[in-house]
Design a protein that fits this description.
3 domains; alpha+beta; 23 strands; about 40% strand; 6 helices; 6-stranded antiparallel β-barrel; 4-stranded antiparallel beta sheet; about 20% helix; about 375 residues
């Protein structure tokens, strides 16, 4: 009952009417600058110093192979030796090299076990090269792993919270190679909208031309605006982008309803509208109870104990809701407020919205996760 009340309060808050106001957003929060992007890095390494929670060498032979290679590079010959340590684990190391990262800078890395290790808590990642898609080494990672979970075990039971087989190393990789990208030599740039829209792209073009002059920006399509750097009159593309990215623009958003069936969450846009429609909702509840009965033979009589099944099945029709005909142009927030007032559960509310969409009365993009 408390959970249902909290959900109803949440929907009530989301459905409150919001005064129309200019919601201006910086251009840097609406677009990606062509060429100004990060690059994914990946490496294969070894975590040591685990408290008996590492890989089983027999189940993960690649752990023994990489451990032998590391020891041989350090001058320790282990050829033909039999060793079965439980304090090492083979891991994949991933990172994102940000744009304009310079040699000597540090970036965060994520470490994930690939063998049968139980936990990476307290482990230390040994020097691991990180490669990009071109096969070149751009960073080297090393440091203490901060795992994102905890585990405890006893003789007959164990408990795990979170994911102890994955963790992070803040500033755990040092950049060794820079991405070759000469921003200063570009004569034109493209602004790629994160959510393509004709109206938003036109407003970005108009806002830039209002600040720099006509002909600086040109909308090519709903997802791209071309910027002529030379026409801005700035000393370099970096100066132009530094000024453009802080220009305020009011984006145009599609009418969209997003529902999450697992958590019962409903998120809607301000412009969602519903046509004339009538809604009636009810439900059935089926209860089945099993009460098996054990029948035993009489004393001193031959026979066996028999379990006789006993099943009770009940079918009840729950009282549903019946709404009056919804007026044309009614906003979805008003419908949600009415359903909340009737005490409709969030999951039932999702079913009602699906039915309204199927009837063609919900004028919005309907996204179900």
């Amino acid at each position: 009952m408390i959970r249902r009340l909290r959900a109803s309060l949440l929907f009530l808050l989301l459905s409150l009417p919001i005064a129309a106001s200019a919601n201006s957003i910086r251009i840097k929060d609406l677009v990606e600058f062509d060429g100004v992007r990060g690059n994914d890095l990946v490496g294969y390494g070894l975590v040591v110093g685990l408290n008996g929670t590492g890989d089983g060498i027999r189940n993960a032979p690649f752990t023994e192979e990489i451990m032998s290679n590391i020891l041989e590079r350090l001058g320790v010959n282990v050829t033909g030796e039999q060793f079965r340590p439980k304090n090492v684990a083979a891991v994949f190391v991933t990172a994102s090299l940000p744009p304009f990262a310079r040699a000597g800078g540090k970036i965060d890395v994520t470490v994930s076990a690939i063998g049968d290790a139980k936990s990476l808590l307290g482990g230390t990642l040994i020097m691991t090269p990180l490669n990009a898609a071109d096969g070149q080494i751009y960073a080297v990672a090393q440091g203490t792993v901060i795992a994102g979970g905890a585990t405890a075990a006893g003789e007959a039971a164990s408990v795990v919270q979170g994911v102890p087989t994955a963790g992070v190393i803040p500033a755990g990789a040092r950049v060794e190679r820079e991405i070759e990208f000469d921003l200063g030599s570009l004569k034109s740039l493209r602004l790629a909208l994160r959510e393509p829209d004709f109206t938003t792209a036109a407003r970005i073009e108009q806002a830039i031309n209002s600040n720099f002059g006509r002909g600086v920006a040109l909308m090519l399509d709903p997802g791209t605006v071309r910027l002529s750097v030379g026409a801005t009159g700035m000393r370099s593309p970096a100066h132009a982008l530094g000024r453009i990215e802080n220009i305020l623009v009011t984006p145009e958003r599609k009418a969209r309803v997003v529902v999450d069936q697992r958590s019962g969450t409903i998120v809607m846009g301000e412009g969602v509208r519903i046509s004339r429609v009538a809604v009636s909702q009810g439900g059935l509840t089926l209860r089945i109870r099993e009460t098996p009965l054990a029948v035993q033979p009489n004393p001193f009589a031959e026979g066996e104990t028999v379990v006789v099944p006993r099943t009770q099945a009940e079918l009840e029709e729950e009282p549903g809701i019946s709404l009056a005909e919804i007026r044309p142009g009614t906003s979805l927030s008003e419908v949600i407020a009415g359903l909340n007032a009737l005490g409709v559960a969030p999951r039932d509310m999702i079913d009602i919205l699906k039915s309204i969409k199927a009837a063609g009365a919900l004028h919005a993009e309907f996204v179900v996760n």
